[in-house]
Amino acid sequence: ICTHLGCIVKPTAAGFECPCHGSRFAKDGTVTGGPAPTPLGWLQVSAAGGAVIVDEAATVPAGTKVAV
Ligand code: FES
Predict the structure, then answer these.
(1) Atom of ligand 1 nearest to the CA of 5
(2) Can you name the residues that pair with 54 across neighbouring β-strands?
(3) How far is the CA of 52 from the centre of ligand 1 (A)?
(4) Where are the beta strands (DSSP E) in 1-68?
(5) What is the pTM assigned to this prediction?
(6) What is the CA radius of gyration of the chain?
(7) 36 touches 4 (CB < 8 A)
(8) What is the number of alpha carbons within 13 Å of residue 14 lying toward its C-beta?
(9) Close Cβ partners of 34 (under 8 Å, ≥ 6 residues apart)
(10) By alpha-carbon position, which residue is closest to atom 4 of ligand 1?
(11) What pLDDT, on the 0 to 100 scale, is given for residue 20?
(12) Residue 68, pLDDT score
């Protein structure tokens, strides 16, 4: 979710881009262009039963790794 006004970002080869006002983010969520004031949030991810589960309501500190 874009940190400018909340649009849904799209993945690109370089990271992510916001379709609303053109903010761009590196793969780690760092702002690389546009009006977004802060990096993208990192979502909580877990693995269970061979599936990857992304909790869109829970953020974790940037750089957090998944333990398997
Ligand atoms: Fe993403 Fe404005 S909401 S750049």
Answers:
(1) 3
(2) 45
(3) 28
(4) 10-11, 15-17, 24-26, 31-33, 42-48, 51-60
(5) 0.84
(6) 13
(7) yes
(8) 10
(9) 4, 18, 21, 22, 23, 24
(10) 21
(11) 98
(12) 63
Q: List, chain by chain if needed, residues with CB within 6 Å of any ligand 1 atom.
A: 2, 4-5, 7, 18, 20-23, 34-36
Rounded distance from Cα 40 to ligand 1 centre (Å): 11
Environment class of 41 (CB within 10 Å of its CB; exposed 0-12, middle 13-18, buried 19+): middle
- 56 vs 13, 35, 43, 44, 53, CA distance in Å? 22, 23, 6, 7, 9
| Centre of ligand 1 from the C-alpha of residue 38, in Å | 11
Residue 34 is predicted with a pLDDT of 96
From ligand 1's centre to the CA of 39, what distance in Å? Answer: 12
Residue 66's pLDDT is: 77
* pLDDT averages per 10-residue partition of the chain, 68 residues: 97 98 97 98 91 92 83
